[in-house]
Amino acid sequence: MQSSECRFNEKYPRVHNGITDTDYSIKVGIQHLASCLNDSKVASSGDTEHISLALQGYNYGNGYISWANEHFGGYTRANAKVFSDEMKAKLKTNVYGDPDYVAHVLRYYHIGNNNIVEVAKSQVGTTSGSKYWTWYGFNKKVNWCAIFVSWCANESGMLDDSSVPKFSLCTDGENWYKKNNRWKDKSYV
């Protein structure tokens, strides 16, 4: 679980890939992740803002969490890159963690509560849309309004061919709902 260097490893060298026992690696990794979630003050499974901070802290070490809070008020992809660059310069190395770690992990994270509205509400304040269009598979910015619906369905556990389809164009979603006799016009309450 990439946890060899963390403070919970008391049995193996604290170097990259130092832990050679799989069970111990999992145990230490879970302790480290729990510590990062606690330090990031994650309030719930839908608190993706603080979960993102915790995940980047898991990848870089807990020091990132206090640094990001102090200098930027939390996690951003941009400050993850800044931290990595600063640490590479300080340690005179070519690589320090993965600035894209949060995106890599969150594409597999699903709130899974079957409440698409709760998932959507948890995203209030998000403006860039990058996590939605990268989740969909685009590698550059696109209009993401329809993608957001699919992302919310995925996060709530409702994304499938019979409930909410995956679509990136509003017209594709509209056509699917019409074809499946589930389309409602704007007068529907």
Please provide a written account of the structure.
This protein has 189 residues and is mainly α. It has a domain at 112-189. The protein is built from nine helices and no strands. The chain has helices at 22-39, 48-60, 63-72, 77-91, 101-106, 116-121, 130-136, 145-156, 170-179. α1 crosses α2, α2 crosses α3 and α7 crosses α8. It starts with 21 loop residues before the first helix and ends in a 10-residue tail after the last helix.
Quick structural gist:
By secondary structure, the chain is an all-alpha fold.
Q: What is the H/E order?
A: HHHHHHHHH
**Secondary-structure class:** mainly alpha
User: Strand-residue fraction?
Assistant: under 5%
Residue share in helix: 40-55%
Low-confidence stretches: none
Question: What's the tally of helices?
Answer: 9
Cα Rg: 20 Å
Number of strands: 0
Mean pLDDT figure: 90
The shape, in one word, is elongated
Q: What's the story with the biggest beta sheet?
A: none
Keywords:
189 residues, mainly alpha
Draw up the topology in text:
Layout: H1 22-39, H2 48-60, H3 63-72, H4 77-91, H5 101-106, H6 116-121, H7 130-136, H8 145-156, H9 170-179
